[in-house]
Amino acid sequence: MIRLALREMGARKRRLIGSLTSVFLGVSFLAGTLVLADTLQSGINGFFTDAYAGTDVSVRSSTRVSTLPGRPRGMIDGSVVERVRRVPGVAAAEPMIQGNGQILRADGRPMDSDGPRNAGNWVADTELNPYRIVAGRAPRTVDEVVINKAAADDAALKVGDRTVVLTPSRVPVTIVGISRFGEEDALGGSTFAAFTLEGARRHIAQGQDRVTGVAVRAASGVDDDDLLTRVRSVLPAGTEALTGTALAEESMNEVNEQFIGVFRMAMLAFAGVALLVAAFSIHNTFSIQMAQRTRESALLRALGAGRGQVLALVAIEALAVGVAATVAGLAGGYGVAVLLKELFAAAGMGFPVEGVVFKVGTVLIAAPVGVIVTALAVVVPVLKASRVAPLAALRESAAERPNRRSSESRALIGVSLGLVGGGAVVWGGLAGAMPITAAGALTCTVVMVLLAPIAAGPVSSLLGRPATRLRGVGGGLARRNAMRNPRRTAGAATALMIGIGVVTLLTVFAGSMRASLEDEVAGSFRGELVVNSGNDLVGGLDPALAERVAALPQVASAAGLGRGDVVLDGKEQDVTVADPARLGRVLRLDVEEGRLGGFAISRDAADDHGWKVGTAVPVTFADGARTTQTVTAIYGSPGPAGDYLLPRSVWSAHERQALDMMTLVDLRDGASMATAKTAIGEVVRPYGAPEVQDRAEFVAAQTENMNAFLTVVYVMLALAILIALLGIANTLAQSIHERTRELGLLRAVGATRGQIRSMVRWESVIVALFGTAGGVALGLFLGWGLAGAALDSFAAPPVQLAVIALVGGLTGVLAAIRPARRAARLDALTAIAAP
Fold it and tell me: For the chain, which has fewer Cβ within 10 Å, the N-terminal or C-terminal residue?
């Protein structure tokens, strides 16, 4: 039986290439995403391991206000350093001051950086300091710094150069040293400027005797756990100690959970789409093959083969396809990982790690998935082939007979599920219930697959009419070919439908996000200009900048807007920091109750918590301080202000490096926009020359990262469309093999090679348009539901959707190139004589 299976595969090797390629691409993408995620995780884990390699015990604040990576804890009293140094078994205890510090280039602009822009003190103990100087020396005075090599290379700075570090105040400095983080030029994508301890205390801790933490090295022969116990015994309230190993693991877990885990799931979702599309292509291919081999299977039964033997014959063939394509896919995964890494880098989202990491886990996940997906895709065709009665070999029969009862059942189930899924999407979209909408979206996708064979006939008839008018007989034959076997047409189109549907969904969701932001800015922002720094993780603005901008003659009012992390009523929460009175002049907050001046919240936040004006809310800050803030106002239009608005005077008392993300500017009546932008640009130039943007530019900047991510998404989803294209081409090729005699008769009665090519090409276009139309319709509907559940606006970008539809149609043209050429080359007499 195995020999027979191999002989069958050899006889049909051309028709198996499409299935092999589909599985290969799907598994390659799955393996590539796993490799890429493992590479990123391994690189980041290595950074944290190196950062704390020499630290045996670390002391820090015990107050935690955020679990997000990159959010530092508050500072602790500097007297803790001497307490720790006096502990028996401590060989060295170094104070650590860490904060934000943007290194400016020679032209006054900040560094390009994919990560945080850090500043701190240079640690003299070489074992506790993960950085090492490769040029120059350590800083000795408060205006000297050591910068990391990646930053120096990026800005063409060298030892002896003068520049500025924003902390966020301007600090003129002299570069006296260049450092590397271990063997790397930087810690990930970050920059680092190291002052003396006194310089860091003055510029980062704002003159206070406060430190971020204490790094401790154990004396020879002292166990880390023993030292940890000793250190803990001398610590004051509000501080805690943990081993360097535990600190590294904690940092790794935070990044893995908050970033890498999300990244892995998103990438696996795209891989899942590719595998799903591949499964439909394989299913359709084997369905056609099994239908074409009906007489062969029946003849085997007539000669004495049992149903199990027929089943084994086809199963061996499917298994061989799955295993061979999976093995090749695992090898291809390495190349896919490299390409994806380069793709992210080209889109401005490069990974701060070198090379790729291929773990055994990738093989243990991707290999079974590839084989299982293949097996599930062919199980129905295989079972159908094994049920062929022996007498079927004695009569001519259609390759695939319609089953009216099956179609009626399919329609009933599909319509019923469609009502449930569609209702869930509508309800979830209107009610803002994302879980319900997501469940409805999955159900609707299943419904499209179920109803596609039923819709294929009438839709192909409708889509084929232009072909009939444009190409005459050839177009008419293409239309009838697509109509006469709806299951085959639907099978070829479903894979494309899913790929196009996901692309449309993401396009609509991105357009809706942009529209929501535009509505937010238009609805709440009174002003015309925004000084935009990006975000507080990679930089920020000095809050004093808003006052300087407000003093310009062209400006009516200006308000800085910052972000912070606190614990509100026992729950970690991101808050907006601003001067409420000034903010009220540039934003339409639509205050419903109370008056701006103190802690204010949005109507949604008030309803969620049951708070009202006068409610006392416990607040814990990063420095460990616990206060009570009274709600003084409830506003109806959050916009850029968010749901929780904390007065700057309150925030600054607990945050030594307060930063603004942006400054909102309202111009005086009659002031020239161009003149105002120039004047504001001169004011902000010493602060790293942040962008001065009008409304449209601000919205575009806010969605820039999303656009870059969408570019990556489109390229990745192109793989799914490529697999769908192969599926359509494979279906056409096998259909032409099945219709060899028919094509020979057409040539015999006068059809030209061009007419044959046109017929096949238009049949492919009809199939592609069917899949494209279904995918666009599904994506639009689901995009509307998801936008309603998560956003305030819905927008379907017409240009992007038109491009998607055009790509779908071109897919049909491309898929038909080889089958059409093959069909046109058939010799008429030979084709007529074909069995």
Answer: C
- Range 4-32 average pLDDT: 68
DSSP 639: G
Give the helix, strand, coil percentages of the chain, each rounded to 5.
60, 15, 25
pLDDT of residue 172: 94
Give CA torsion, residues 662, 666, 671, 675, to 10 deg. Answer: 0
**Segments in 160-243 forming alpha helices (H):** 197-203, 224-232
pLDDT tens by residue, 185-207 = 888 778 899 999 999 999 999 88
Nearest to 728 by CA among 500, 552, 418: 500
Q: How far apart are CA 676 and CA 702, in angstroms?
A: 22
Task: Please provide residue 217's backbone torsions phi and psi, each rounded to the nearest 5 degrees.
Answer: -115, 130
Q: What's the CA gap between 286 and 280, in Å, rounded?
A: 10
Query: For position 619, what pLDDT does the model report?
Result: 95
Domain match, 520 and 541 both? no
820 inside domain = yes
Q: Are residues 209 and 136 in the same domain?
A: yes
* Gap between the Cα atoms of 119 and 129, Å rounded: 14
What per-residue string of b and e applies to 177-201 under the rule 16 or more CB within 10 Å gives b?
bbbbbeebbbbbbbbbbbbbbebbb
Domains of the chain: total? 3
92/232 same-domain check: yes
Domain final residue, candidates 689, 711, 745: 689
CA angle 465/783/515 to nearest 5° reads 115
The predicted pLDDT at position 310 comes to 65
What's the rounded Cα separation, in Å, for the pair 774 and 657?
A: 53
Q: Which residue in 554, 506, 829, 593 sits closest to 677, CA to CA? A: 554
Rounded Cα distance, 585 and 590, in Å: 12
Domain membership of residue 353 (yes or no) is no
Alpha helices in 172-243 (DSSP H): 197-203, 224-232
**Is 194:120 a contact under the CB 8 Å cutoff?**
yes
Which tops the pLDDT comparison, 27 or 215? 215
CA angle (678, 679, 682) in 5-degree steps: 90
Same domain, 83 and 232: yes
Per DSSP, 259 falls in state: I
Mean pLDDT, range 58-67, rounded to an integer: 91
Q: What is the 3-state secondary structure (H, E, C) of 493-532?
A: HHHHHHHHHHHHHHHHHHHHHHHHHHHHHHHHECCCEEEE
User: 79 and 207, same structural domain?
Assistant: yes
Coil, strand, or helix at residue 124?
A: coil
Task: Please check whether residue 397 lies inside any domain of the structure.
Answer: no
Domain range for residue 548? 534-689
Residues 215 and 71 in one domain: yes
221 domain residue, yes or no: yes
Helix ranges (DSSP H) in 525-643: 544-550, 580-586, 603-609
The residues near 799 (Cβ < 8 Å, ≥ 6 apart) are none
Q: Which domain-ending residue is among 654, 689, 724?
A: 689
From residue 83, alpha-carbon distances to 200, 480, 738 in Å are 21, 88, 87
C-alpha 50: how far from chain center = 28
Beta bridge partners of 195: 121
Whether residues 521 and 556 share a domain: the answer is no
Pairing, β 144-148 against β 170-181: parallel
Distances (CA, A) of 100 to 57, 198, 280: 24, 16, 51
What's the rounded Cα separation, in Å, for the pair 299 and 390? Answer: 6
Whether residue 398 is predicted with pLDDT greater than 50 in this model: the reply is no
Residues 107 and 246 in one domain: yes
Q: Cα–Cα distance between 512 and 779 in angstroms, integer?
A: 13
